[in-house]
Structures are given as C-alpha cells and as structure tokens.
Design goal:
152 residues; alpha+beta; Nucleoside Triphosphate Pyrophosphohydrolase; eight-stranded mixed sheet
Length: 152
C-alpha cells in the first residue's frame, strides 16, 4: 500500500482593480504556499479547507469567509511528488474561498505573513519579492490548470 498524501486547499481570493488576487502565506523556510492542510480521518476536503482557513488565518468560519460548496477540482492519482522519492497515493481538492467583509480583508492585508499574488505570479511560482511557491503546490496548480496565468 502506498503512503497517502491527502490535502484540502483553500483558494482564498479577492478582486482588486478588476483582477483576481490569490492569498499565499509566507512560510518559516522563506517560501510561500497556499492555505492547505492534511485531511483528517472522517473529514471532507471542504472541511479541511475550512479548518485550515480558520486556523492559519485566525478567521471566524461563521462570519468572515465562505468556502464554496463545490471544489474547483478534485484529484486522486498516484505520483512521485516534488521533493519525494517514492510514489504516493495523492488525493487533493481545491476550494474557492471568499472573504465576506472589507475589515477582514484589511486585517489580512496588514498581516506580514499574508501576500496577495496575481494569477501570473502564482502560476510562475515566484512572488515579486523573490519568495518561491512550495514545489508540490506549484506542480499541482500548473499540471492540472487550477489557476491559469492569463486569468484576470
């Protein structure tokens, strides 16, 4: 039996000047990554995405944001992920997340760990400051066209 890598991703987005911005978090290793986490036992991928937004961003799930009821994409496959040597049983789901209130967006804007990227920056895997997106996340985004660079 292959090792499992089951993660729920939150595609936290905001519209700014008629373009979409995607939230990434600065990591302790100097990189950046989307909000995501491992799916827990008996938890749906949507519940994982909701839990991770609540925990990682300190937001209230009842009043600050809405996780879509439908995933942008659900995937299940076997692969050798970047940074690993053995095949794994991979299952991931990407859920759009919209923040409800301007005050919450302003709080995220003021948070030093938070960074908003446009679609081209996210797909390139590099922020304007040079931080690099986690290689697994970058592989998934580009291989399965979760976000497209031309997307406004």
């Amino acid at each position: 039996m292959l090792p499992r890598w089951f993660h729920g991703y939150a595609l936290v987005r905001k519209v700014e000047d008629d373009s979409i911005r995607w939230l990434v978090l600065r990591t302790s290793g100097g990189g950046i990554d989307l909000v995501h986490g491992p799916r827990l036992e008996r938890e749906s991928f949507r519940e994982t995405a909701t839990r991770e937004v609540t925990w990682q961003l300190g937001l209230n799930r009842d009043s600050d944001f809405l996780v879509s009821t439908m995933a942008t994409l659900n995937l299940e496959f076997e692969a050798v992920l970047p940074g690993t040597c053995q095949p794994q049983h991979v299952a991931v789901a990407f859920y759009p997340v919209d923040v409800y209130r301007t005050a919450v967006l302003q709080r995220l804007d003021a948070e030093p760990r938070c960074l908003w990227l446009n679609s081209a920056e996210l797909c390139s895997g590099r922020a304007p400051g040079g931080e690099q997106l986690h290689p697994v996340t970058l592989e998934l985004i580009n291989r399965f066209e979760i976000v497209q660079a031309w997307q406004q």
